[in-house]
Amino acid sequence: MPKSTIEKAAIEIHERYTQGSLISSAERSIMSSGLSGILDFVDANEDGQRSLFGTSLWMKMRAQYDYTFKEALAFARPPYLDGALTHFIHLCERSKGAAAMAYLTKAMEAADTDEDSIMGLRLVAQFIGSLAIYRTMLDPLPLNGHHHPIAFKIDIRFVNDCHHTSKMIDIAAPRRQTINDNAKLLREGKDILDNLLNTSFEQQAANAMMGVIIQLDGFQGSMSSIQLDQYGLYVALPRYRLQYPRSSASLRRFSDTLDALLALKDQLCSISAIVNNQMDLCKDKRASLGSKHSRPAAAIKPHRLTKKQRPTWYSSPPNDPSLSCLPSLLPSFKED
């Protein structure tokens, strides 16, 4: 079973790690992901978790989970957006910038345009207007020390306001550093997913929850998802490649990225609506009968994924390997 395989390998590496033995970056990724219960399909390297299973079994598992979580971040581009984007790109590639912007403005003002098309066209307009700013930001001269920035992190959150009670919830973690440390960002994505699962009470709501990881490196990157399956595995899957344009003439590479951004928008809206519904449900359940009849409020039965959640493993604060401990819910493996 994948869960026992990644955990056993992680425990073996952790034992060497705590004894002071040097471990490779690939082994550290296997250890940190395995100890956190993460099955990592995002890392495509041969020395990653796939080395524990073999190529054939790895690809079979990947296909199975792609099918299981096929609805995650799925997006179908509206016909209106597809037609407008195709025509706009065609004008840009023919160096007809003024005509392209005039067409884009007219397309956004059409009365019968759907919401996703309007959002998509606005994103295109925003990117066109930001290209000069991007070039300025990439110029090393204005920066201290005349160097390019090497890392940044952005947390995407929303604040739920339920019956005058606010709750801040992490929902996505974009970070450039993940190109160098994919496993660390996946663990942050797992923490986000756990946070969302802890706000869920109904099984249907829990099943819809997912963490989103955005990896950025210059003008390209990727978007991945992490979800908890029925066996207690946090499954990380790649979803979209991100390609940002360097000029209006290279907008064609941005077409699929636009789908990814609109899929992310739909996912954020969906999760925020679910969380708001679950907070209202919790409030109503606690108030039912109890406040009117002096009886205890009806208990809310936890969803079954609650029992599948597990703690996340992180390096010990002083970065002393000898102080590292296994997660509390992780069983010890014994050799037969």
From TrEMBL:
Residues 315-336 have a biased composition (Low complexity). Residues 292-336 are annotated as: Disordered. It comes from Hesseltinella vesiculosa. Residues 301-310 have a biased composition (Basic residues). This is Uncharacterized protein.
